[in-house]
Amino acid sequence: MNNKDILIVDDDCDLAAITADLFTDNGYNVSVAADSRSALENLAQTAYRLILLDINLPDGTGFSLCETLRKTTDIPILFISARTSDTDKITGLDIGGDDYIPKPYSLGELLSRVKAHLRRSYAMDAGSERFCFGGVEVNLEARGAVKNGVSVELSAKEFDLLSFLLQNKNKALSKDDMFNAVWGAYSEAEPSSLTVHIRWLREKLEDDPSNPRFIKTVWGVGYKLEVI
Fold first, then answer.
1. Which residue from 29, 84, 138, 193 puts its CA 20 to 30 A from 149's CA?
2. 88 contacts: CB under 8 Å, gap ≥ 6
3. What residues have CB less than 8 Å from 202, skipping those under 6 apart?
4. Checking DSSP bridges between strand 77-81 and strand 50-53, what pairing results, if any?
5. 208-228 burial, b for 16+ CB within 10 Å, e for fewer?
6. d(CA 179, CA 174)
7. 77: number of CA atoms within 13 Å, CB side?
């Protein structure tokens, strides 16, 4: 598996080719699929690190494909679409998309966003560090967490958020700083996504999520991971 393997799923062949050339010129390995079936065939053969996914496809929708993929993988999925309504954006993010980029897009901005998502998803764990608090052990290099000897299933965003909290443990972190670090300053995700992911982390890691011992709310500021 290469850290720069990207799959573009788009039936606009000309735009897909231009986008593929951009990423190839910047050192990425790019595959292009024009429909859902071809995308799934590619995914069965290659462990891609990120998917650029159009919504309107000849054999279904990008939404349906995203929902299918989210059952088995947390690979970053960035929607690219000429559909720019708030409803479409919210749908794409709610079903598991990591970003929503309207067409026509700036190639430079698209490249920047892809780099940011790859960095947050795969490089945030640099340092081979392990952290323990309570009955929880987190391995940043392996992107894994264990609670009381039992593996904890965390999504990519949940783990990125936990990593950021760990790397800034015992510090009061603003919601803006946390959101920008995990989702990115240009993300189309709603700021409320942070609150939702904090709740999910508490449910998975705290013994009493309604009265958290470690993932604390700092009123008027944001949150902090309080550990010794």
1. 193
2. 55, 81, 100
3. 209, 212, 215
4. parallel
5. eeeebebbeeeeeebbbbbbe
6. 9
7. 27
How many CB atoms are located within 10 Å of the residue 38 CB? 18
Q: For residue 183, what are its two tokens? A: 């989702």
Per-residue confidence (pLDDT) for residue 125, from 0 to 100: 42
Reported as a single tens digit per residue, the pLDDT across 15-35 is: 999 999 999 998 999 999 999
Instruction: Give the global pTM.
Output: 0.58
SS3 label, residue 99:
strand
Please check whether residue 16 is in contact with residue 10, taking contact to mean a CB–CB distance below 8 angstroms.
yes
Task: Give the amino acid at 166.
Answer: L
Q: What is the rounded CA–CA span in Å between residue 120 and residue 76?
A: 10
Q: Which residue has the tokens 């709610």?
A: 94
Tokens representing 198 are 């904090």
Residue 10, token pair as written in the block: 């788009």
| pLDDT tens-digit readout, 67-106 | 999 988 888 999 999 998 989 999 999 999 999 999 988 8
